[in-house]
Here is the input.
Amino acid sequence: MRFGVVVFPGTWSDCDFHYVISEVIRQPVKYVWHRDRNLADLDCVVLPGGFSYGDYLRAGAVAGKSPVVEALRDFVANGGYVLGSCNGFQILCEAGMLPGVLMRNECLQYRCQSTNLLVENVETPFTRGLRAGQVLTMPISHGEGKYYADVPTLAALKARQGIVFRYATADGQVVKAANPNGSVENIAGVVNETGTVLGLMPHPERAAETAMGGTDGLLLFQSLLGTLVEDGTFLKR
Amino acid sequence: MAGTEPKVTPDLAQSLGLTLDEYHRIVQRLGREPSYTELGLFSALWSEHCAYKHSRVFLGRLPTRAPHLLQGPGENAGAVDIGDGWAVVFKMESHNHPSFIEPFQGAATGVGGILRDIFTMGARPIAILDSLRFGDPADLKTRHLINGVVSGISWYGNCFGCPTVGGEIAFAPEYAGNPLVNVMCVGLVRSDRIHLARAEGVGNPVFYVGNKTGRDGIHGATMASAAFDDEAEAKRPTVQVGDPFTEKLLLEACLEAMATGAVVGIQDMGAAGLACCTSEMPARSGTGMDVELSAVPQRETDMTPYELLLSESQERMLLVGANGRDEELRRVFAKWELDAVKIGEVTGGPDLVVRHHGEEVAHVPVEALADGPRYEKPYAPPAWLAERRAFDPLSLPEPKDYGETLVRLMGAPTIASKEWAFRQYDQQVGTNTLVLPGSDAAVLRIKGTRRAIAISTDGSGRQVFLDPRRGAAMAVCEAARNVSCAGGRPLGVTDCMNFGSPERPEILWQFAEAIEGIAEACRALEVPVVGGNVSFYNETSGTAILPTPICGVVGVLEDAGRLGTQWFKAAGHRIALLGPDAVSLGGSEYLWTLHGRLAGRLADLDLEIERRVQSAVRAAVGAGLVTAAHDCAEGGLAATLAEGCVTGARANGGVGCEVTVEPGRRLDETLFGEGPSRVVVTVEPARQREFEALMAESAVPWRWIGTTGGERVIVRAGEVVVNVPVDRIEHAWRNGFERHMA
Here is the structure.
């Protein structure tokens, strides 16, 4: 599977994603500059974390209008996969490719910590190797990760099973104490209607090696690769 | 332009921070009166901050040689070889004065400044550590400062994309009017790709790159070279304003430009801005420079030559390019949407010639600017010291309940968890951080190799106050011991010397003694000082801070898979104490927290024992014989054990312990007394024989003191003297600092 990792001015998880893709899951990967519109030779585009364009105006707002993100629409329409983590999730929301917005954390401070994620939707290419109710551990690192959507948007999102991850306790309880940023209904990650665009605030690339404290983030990549061979049986159940 | 400039007089020179004598020296050096612009150049470059006027005679005492040293003091940062073709570049710097005046931007630009020092060397910054000192967090003004400093560090470091992996925060009333913000940065570079701040090659173009210049931070270096009075906040305009996004672009652009091979030399425009770069770079190379200020990118109108030279606007560099490769360089900076403007060229010297719209506004030998005065001022120990030292802590009553005393100490802000601050910092970007904040040392892997580096900062103002020489030596030892506990072999030290006014003999004595102490410890441990920074005038209205040298140590682990952390992993592991018995309550956290006293003598320091203990711990960690290794520091043996129980990941729950100690002279001294060269380790029973054999070989004093397990911390000294649930200790430790900030 051919991956592209987008680099905006101010992106900083680009190298980390690149490392995991090339050195851990051993797939072909290249960097994609924010002015590039040519995504033709890619199967999956990663929008990594960082402060694209300094996150001036609003987090992800300027990047949401960039040439590469404009090109993403066609890429998605043609069946390409998009994984947006942290700033990437913010950008996808700002670009209108995912519903909702990400606001300043409720505590008004940046938060870097480990979180537990309850898996709700296993019908996406990114989660099909998982089972519903499984709890993944991945770190977050953001100041603006409070997910918000108005009532009709939220209802529509739920109706189509668009919520993929919620912040939870280690045993899968979705409670306020497990919510690190004040996200509505503990939402940590959502997908688009076709399930091919996933946005999440946590960092799967930081949870992809035992040395880094865990490998749950790798499951997203392994699920994705499994979609190509139509076989998820090698994955952790 | 010249018509609107103030007339140069000795009075004007003095108002800019120069002494009358220094002014006469300038006139003598030039053979004429300086112009207003020239006077500005001298006032900045001859400030204490830039010229190290009072400290240079002492700094020469520090050992700066080692086989693995690639770059010692005198450049933007130092560098050591870590093997496999890689070097780490590191340095610590203070931003104390700006952080008191404007804590958020002061701390943020402190981070920005040290990041630039690292990447001007061609290294990608991979770790930040902050050593912070404040007054009592129960005080409202102090909480404002803590909040501002921590959020400033968080804002700049997180946005830039360099993880904050360690450091320490300590509290004492002496820092209330003068907090310390010392930031250390570590970067990684191929050892043959280090860039230096040189202006080589006559005719090579001089480029201004990065952010535009404004009127912010003018005379920041001069501000940082004077003590504060009640009017300190009126100096807020001298604090710069940071832009971490631009810094990130500057990082990428500089590294990309260096990769082209067209960069001859490069220096960060930090303190004293353009003035500093245009004189220091040619001075290092025995050349000169000719620059035209009207070409400097500006974000304000009508800036004078004086303002352009002295502005400390952030995120700027001066770059000397290879002749004929201008276009290549311009293209790289254009890609990152940054200015890269040719403002002059390297000349044969010996002068710096500055023009504005073609008119010459300064013409000075670079040597005269870069080689400021050095003073040998009188120094003498303070009269009150003998009495402070003579105090015997054992003249105070013994605590009635040792368990409660331990709980109280674990909740003292200096010992308590600093998670409130660290969770605001990105600790993992770069995916190298193997040991996150909260252990003795941070550990980062070096991708593409089996190696890792361990980093720690340390420095106790209380200990240095009571005994500057021994206290400073202990700071080096403790930082190095922390690195050894993680399994790292110390390779280099960076020191940040925070003191009061050197014009007072007792302060200069503290400084001179501290330098000797650092030098002695570095020689004994065979680690060079690779660079650092001196921050004098840390005093407000005549009251100085505790003398605080902070030492940052970087070490290398040959095998990233064999690293040490401080927390107990499981029940049933045997606990050993390595090192001497000699401890003291003098200057201890116990004496301060329980009795509000700062007095007494420090424990003895035997540098040979220190070296052996560190080497034994490293060997044990490297052989995989220990499951935890933790330096005995604030709070003594009892707090060290309690930390072993509670500082692991919250998910693990605590692991209790049961130990037996000899009561010694008195039990409070034995349990809470502090002394160097001591480490607690845990060993699985199956590895006990191997461990014992290694210790016998290492010739260090050591003994078994107990076992991990259970849900309580139990200490016997004949009878049971401490018996406290781990939960209670953990609660005190988690909330001791955070309760003030929540």
Remarks:
- Chain A touches chain B at residues 9-10, 12-13, 15-16, 19-20, 49-51, 53-56, 109-113, 139, 141, 143, 170, 203, 205-206, 208-209, 211-212 (CB under 8 Å).
- Residues 111 and 141 of chain A are 6 Å apart (CA to CA).
